[in-house]
Amino acid sequence: MADLIYCYIGPTLVAVNPYKKLSYFTDAEIDIYNGSAAHENPPHIYAVADKMYQSMLTDEENQCVIISGESGAGKTESAKLIMNYIAAISGKGGSLNNVVDGVKKIIFESNPLLESFGNAKTLRNNNSSRFGKYFEINFTKGGYPVGGKISNFLLEK
């Protein structure tokens, strides 16, 4: 019970940073949460990512996940987990295979770069970002990632 870091409050997922690596962010969990309803499994960030992805496909509407918290709360790690999940479940693009694989590669490789910009030492965290990050990933109607952009905005001077 000590390593259960997620709970739902209504449709909102609340996470507590455990400040250590946990064992339930593997391909096995990706398979468990892919396509399942939120109530079928314990609360998890993959459930939120899957709900967003499936809603995008079925409703054909843009989706948004807001990740908020104090310095050191795990916001960057949560964003990485969501992007890794989307990259894992979004499949192959058929004739777009090279584009889709290229976008997935960029998603994976952008994480260390993003963490290096605008970081500063604070009382709570030695590597705290002073920037908010807005990730936008573009998909085909079939759910294949084909592009996107990352925007930074200054949170404090």
Quick recap:
The chain is α+β, with helices and mostly antiparallel strands and 157 residues long. It is built from 4 helices and 6 strands; from the N terminus they run ββααααββββ.
Compile the SSE list and pairings:
Blueprint: E1 6-9, E2 12-15, H1 27-33, H2 45-59, H3 75-89, H4 97-116, E3 119-120, E4 128-129, E5 131-139, E6 145-154
Antiparallel strand pairs: 1-2, 3-4, 5-6
Helix pairs in contact: 2-3, 3-4
Note the main attributes of this structure:
two-stranded antiparallel sheet, 157 residues, alpha+beta, 36% helix, 6 strands, globular
Report the structural category: alpha+beta
Sheet with the most strands, sense and barrel status = 2 strands, antiparallel
Give a count of the beta strands, DSSP E runs of length 2 or more.
Answer: 6
Oligomer: single chain
Tell me what you see in this structure.
By secondary structure, the protein is an alpha+beta fold. The protein is 36% helix and 20% strand. The chain has four helices and six strands, in the order E-E-H-H-H-H-E-E-E-E. The chain has a two-stranded antiparallel sheet. It has a two-stranded antiparallel sheet with strand order 3-4. It has a two-stranded antiparallel sheet with strand order 5-6. Strand 3 and strand 4 (128-129) form a beta hairpin. The radius of gyration is 16 Å and the shape is globular. The protein starts with 5 loop residues before the first strand and ends with a strand. The mean pLDDT is 80.
